[in-house]
## 1
Amino acid sequence: AQKVTQAQTEISVVEKEDVTLDCVYETRDTTYYLFWYKQPPSGELVFLIRRNSFDEQNEISGRYSWNFQKSTSSFNFTITASQVVDSAVYFCALHNTNAGKSTFGDGTTLTVKP
Amino acid sequence: GAGVSQSPSNKVTEKGKDVELRCDPISGHTALYWYRQSLGQGLEFLIYFQGNSAPDKSGLPSDRFSAERTGGSVSTLTIQRTQQEDSAVYLCASSLDRGRVSEQFFGPGTRLTVL
């Protein structure tokens, strides 16, 4: 069975602070994909990043960075110098390449205050 | 636009009635997913279609739920004899998934309220 845990239900920071959203996953598959999605107040989920299980290289995209550690089954997401527009619910997801099923975490609600 | 569209955007129904929710995926996307999102909750996987293969129905919560995808494109999620606990936002997503897993593009959802 697959499981994705986002232990932080809600996080509140002040603008310009750095914030890290945690994601821990469980799977028996050796090949899988991990995703982060953002759901702003408008409601539609937006893709942020995809990482496959064989690529542990960390990635930076502007103010966003991701730390994938297979040894600890974690795929954490850091926002540097947060902005009010970063306020949203962020979901981590695990995709089973064999069955095609995606398992989402319960999401972390990030509030960035001015 | 060329995104995923869903209809209706809102649906209010009485307990016991049947409802049909529609999803138009992005043209050319082979994979289509249905999820349910209850208020303040994460996404609950319901069903997955990939090309012409038999769908993965492992997430459907009961036999009152069914889905079909006609011609590898439009999909309809049907809920029979709706119950109040069916109230949620139903999200559809599609992805290209040709040879490698790609990101899912989500529709705006259908908000279902069962009175």
## 2
Amino acid sequence: DTGVSQDPRHKITKRGQNVTFRCDPISEHNRLYWYRQTLGQGPEFLTYFQNEAQLEKSRLLSDRFSAERPKGSFSTLEIQRTEQGDSAMYLCASRAWENTEAFFGQGTRLTVV
Amino acid sequence: AQSVTQLGSHVSVSEGALVLLRCNYSSSVPPYLFWYVQYPNQGLQLLLKYTTGATLVKGINGFEAEFKKSETSFHLTKPSAHMSDAAEYFCAVSSNTNAGKSTFGDGTTLTVKP
């Protein structure tokens, strides 16, 4: 399977705990995007990388959130001190520079209890 | 700034009937427009896209959409609904400066009745 891969698919955590999600983009896609989708809403842009550089962050990305893409390959999204409002589906997408659309992974569903 | 409005959060059709899902967008630059489908607990699958050129675009599974600049619309249609079309559909807009950064509508849930 050469699509975008996200791990884990589901995560249940207690409020206040830290969680980390991983995204493996399609090989040689230099752009990588993170989105958050809450129930009944469309995905909302969080941040994006071009290679290892984080070029843009949404205001939705509070200081409890951090994303990295070391070496321009896989990416991680960490949420510190989780809150119930963080419960959502976190989607990753990647794009090659010549593509006009991004390809999405299956998402990680986070539930904070 | 860009925005998307999907008219009708729920649409119900009979199997074999026409599917019409409405999308209006706002963009200060020439838009790229997309329709995605999402099944429960799954990611997004691209149905079709408009970037430049022909304003009537055809996608997978028999869907098509027409870009109407004067109406700022990009409605999705399918002549004959199938039970497997039941899902949530999202319209999205981006720009040619960063095509992967999209603004999405809130989605339309399509129900197909036998």
## 3
Amino acid sequence: QLQLQESGPGLVKPSETLSLSCIVSGGSISSSGYYWAWIRQPPGKGLEYIGSFYYSGSTYYRPSLKSRVTISVDTSKNQISLKLTSVTAADTAIYYCASVTTVSNYFDPWGQGTLVTVSS
Amino acid sequence: EIVLTQSPGTLSLSPGERATLSCRASQRVSSSYLVWYQQKPGQAPRLLIYDASTRATGIPDRFSGSGSGTDFTLTISRLEPEDFAVYYCQQYSRSQWTFGQGTKVEIK
């Protein structure tokens, strides 16, 4: 059974880079047909897709975040990473990682999420 | 980008009542790519319905999805206390996923 667990700093200063990791257990991130995605949710607000890494190496990003986002994988650690540069208070959110398959195209499972606050 | 608009923003109902939630897309969405999630406070979203009308594993049959094209509906036939939560629709198109803004189902 696939499980995902996010980790990273809970506090980031404005203009700095937010860096998060997501450890995948119960399966390989190199498995064919999988996207590994990041989604965020500002406090009290809705869900926002950030981007995804396809097992073949392709990446897809939300257009409004594309200039600041990098999603990558470390197959040796079975881990997905998110980097978001030049953060502002608007980037304060719970950040989730999730998996999608090309067959399903829905997010399942999700990690439990990690809150990142952007503040000086 | 396909925009999903959910209505109403908040639905105030009593246990045992029927809930009808709407999700309208700015462009046609394939029914195979329309999904509903439930989210409770402090939890990650939980998959409810995929392919517009197929219940996910373990989801009670009081939850049903319907619709096609640009108009989709999630119906909860008789609300149980554990069903009061926020519900999101989501679509997939051309390697982009978008979510609706959510409908909160609250106890009246």
## 4
Amino acid sequence: EIVLTQSPGTLSLSPGERATLSCRASQYVRSGYLAWYQQKPGQAPRLLIYGASSRATGIPDRFSGSGSGTDFTLAISRLEPEDFAVYYCQYHYNSRAFGQGTKVEIK
Amino acid sequence: EVQLLESGGGLVQPGGSLRLSCAASGFTFRNYPMSWVRQAPGKGLEWVTAISEDASSTFHADSVKGRFTISRDNSKNTLYLQMSSLRVDDTAVYFCAKRDSSMGPFDQWGQGALVTVSS
């Protein structure tokens, strides 16, 4: 079973800064099936990125995804106040594994 | 506008049963696979169970196998989760989620239903 490990656990940054989040898979995963979600307190997750690098409908272009094989990255170019949240990666091919999440908090 | 509205959550004693419902609207429900994902208090997301568009196939996480059953009624645009032999560690917010294809990501989520298992 594929295990996704996200790092760091918490990222403390200021608005306007760049955020880089990592998701590492325990074995090779197909890029077309790597997704990222954003979750704010008390809300449902929201799909941000699918296929490792494609933005979901309505997602601002400051969010970008990249990577292949076992290493994937979510980047937020300039943090807006509404971007402080928890982010999860997921491999949705023949498993539905989620990473444990990275919290992006205001420094 | 796509909407997924869960209901049926509440407090139940260990060993008890509960059924969650998820009413779907704004899309052709019968064309999409659906899942339940849960989140224990202060924890991350855990996929629980999935069902194909026509209900011919279902899948369950090992943690709920034999205790939880997913089903759907395409005539009522509703997804169900029957939970039995509930344990304290089943306490969580349960989200229903739509997939855009059989292997696709979860592109739409409900707001969640809280299930608390406690004596």
